[in-house]
Design brief:
single chain; mainly alpha; two-stranded antiparallel sheet; 11 helices; globular
Length: 200
């Protein structure tokens, strides 16, 4: 797929390979979620403008949306890979991870790993891409929980219960659970308030 800004209007253009036509409607739904196109920025901005500290920020960036993810499992893994490392290091680790556990998709591309593939790999193979064993175990634990159905990476009916189920896994704290709900699942009320950067 290719997504670009429409040159003559406030819209995005989606270009899809013919091989994806059988799954066009689910793909369009995922792209809409990726770009947060079902949000109502006018209503959101109206509420945020009521706060005197947020009002100037909203005025400076009206209609700002939060990007989501096409694949919630990939977003979850990327969140864990990015813990306590720079953005550049996280990107490098994600590339190594995809190459090690993903499947070839032709023309030098790789399809990101599935939860089942990561669960089958085990933490010893995960740590080999260059991360601490504790993080490799956290990634493996999440993959096992998703693969066997204990964790469903879909918008939960109860945010608190979803966060609690993630925090019960080793190596996943409240910040990561809230971040996953916010970015991977696009839960509107999720917010990683414990994040030091956000607090500052």
């Amino acid at each position: 797929i290719a997504v670009r800004r429409a040159p003559d209007r406030h819209a995005l253009e989606l270009e899809v390979a013919p091989s994806l036509l059988p799954v066009l409607m689910p793909l369009v739904a995922r792209v809409r979620r990726l770009f947060d196109l079902d949000a109502r920025p006018d209503l959101i901005d109206g509420v945020l403008r009521r706060d005197r500290r947020l009002a100037p920020l909203v005025a400076a960036r009206p209609g700002l949306r939060l990007p989501g993810a096409i694949d919630p499992f990939e977003a979850a893994i990327r969140a864990l890979l990015g813990q306590q490392v720079s953005v550049a290091a996280a990107r490098t680790l994600a590339g190594r991870f995809a190459a090690a556990f993903g499947t070839p998709a032709g023309e030098g591309r790789v399809r990101f790993a599935t939860a089942a593939a990561v669960a089958a790999a085990g933490p010893d193979r995960i740590v080999a891409i260059g991360m601490p064993m504790t993080r490799a175990r956290a990634i493996h634990g999440l993959a096992c929980a998703v693969a066997d159905g204990r964790i469903a990476l879909e918008a939960p009916s109860e945010l608190a219960a979803f966060v609690e189920s993630l925090v019960a896994l080793p190596g996943i704290g409240p910040w990561t659970a809230q971040y996953l709900a916010m970015r991977a699942l696009h839960v509107p009320d999720a917010f990683p308030a414990a994040d030091l950067g956000i607090q500052k």
